[in-house]
Specification:
single chain, mainly beta, Pectate Lyase C-like, 2 helices, 58% strand, DUF2807, signal, Putative auto-transporter adhesin head GIN domain-containing protein
C-alpha cells in the first residue's frame, strides 16, 4: 500500500513538473520587437494574446509588445500571403501581451484559443472570412464587404459594425454573434446548440436555427427560415436599437 501511495505521489509530482515546464508568465521589464513581413491577406493565430490589425500597405510588419521574457515566445512565419502566429509555450496570467499587425487589407482571420482580435482600421474587401473557435473573440468597428462568412464554435464571440451585402453565418456550441450595427441586405444562417446571434437584415433572411439557439432580427426582411426544436426567433423594432 505504501508503494502504491509513493508511486502515485511521484506520478502527480512529475505531471506537475511537465505541466509547469510548458507554461510561462510575463515578468520583469517590458519591451517591443519588430518583425518585417511580406504582404499578406490571411491571418492564422493560436494562443492567448491580443491581436490588433492596423492598415498599412507601404510597410507591412508585426510589432510584439510584452514582457522581455515573452518577446521570443511567439512563432511567427509567412507562407505566400498567409501569416501564422502561435506560441512556443502557453502563456497565462499576463497583463501585457499585444501583437500589432500592420499590413494591407486582410481577407481571412482564422483564430483559436483565447485570442482577442481588434480590427482598428477599416476593412474594405470583396469577401471577408472569419473563423473563431474555443474562446477567441473579435471586434471590428468599420467593415465594408460584399460577402461576409463567419464560422463560430466553442465559446467564441464576434461583434462587427459596418455594411455588407450578404452574410453566411454558422454558429454552434455556446458561441455568440451580436452585430446589430452591421447593416446586411441578406443573411443565410445555420445556428445550433445554444449559440446566439443578433442581426440587422433589410431584405432577405434564410437558413435554420436548431436546438436551444436564439436569433434576434432587426428589420423586416422576407423570411425562409426553419425554427427547429426549442430554437427561438425574435424580431426587434429597429427604432428601439438605433435611437
Amino acid at each position: 500500500m505504501k508503494k502504491v501511495i509513493f508511486y502515485s505521489f511521484i506520478a502527480l509530482y512529475s505531471l506537475c513538473l511537465v505541466s509547469c515546464s510548458f507554461s510561462v508568465k510575463g515578468e520583469g521589464e517590458t519591451g517591443e520587437k519588430e518583425i518585417k513581413i511580406s504582404n499578406i491577406n490571411e491571418v492564422e493565430a493560436q494562443g492567448n494574446y491580443r491581436l490588433i490589425y492596423l492598415y498599412d500597405n507601404t510597410n507591412p510588419r508585426i510589432i510584439v509588445e510584452t514582457y522581455k521574457n515573452l518577446l521570443d515566445n511567439l512563432k511567427i512565419k509567412t507562407s505566400g500571403s498567409k501569416l501564422s502566429i502561435s506560441e512556443s509555450k502557453k502563456v497565462e496570467g499576463t497583463d501585457l501581451y499585444n501583437v500589432y499587425i500592420y499590413g494591407p487589407q486582410i481577407e481571412t482571420f482564422d483564430v483559436t484559443d483565447s485570442i482577442n482580435v481588434d480590427i482598428n482600421s477599416q476593412l474594405r474587401v470583396s469577401q471577408l472570412n472569419i473563423n473563431l473557435s474555443k474562446s477567441a473573440k473579435l471586434l471590428a468597428s468599420n467593415v465594408v464587404v460584399d460577402v461576409l462568412k463567419v464560422d463560430l464554435s466553442g465559446k467564441a464571440k464576434a461583434s462587427i459594425q459596418g455594411t455588407g451585402n450578404k452574410l453566411i453565418l454558422t454558429a454552434s456550441d455556446e458561441s455568440d454573434f451580436t452585430s446589430p450595427f452591421l447593416e446586411l441586405s441578406e443573411a443565410n444562417v445555420n445556428i445550433s446548440n445554444v449559440a446566439t446571434a443578433e442581426l440587422y437584415v433589410k431584405s432577405k433572411l434564410l437558413g435554420k436555427i436548431t436546438n436551444n439557439s436564439r436569433l434576434s432580427i432587426i428589420g423586416n426582411p422576407s423570411k425562409d427560415i426553419k425554427t427547429i426544436d426549442l430554437a427561438e426567433l425574435k424580431f426587434i423594432n429597429s427604432d428601439s436599437i438605433r435611437k
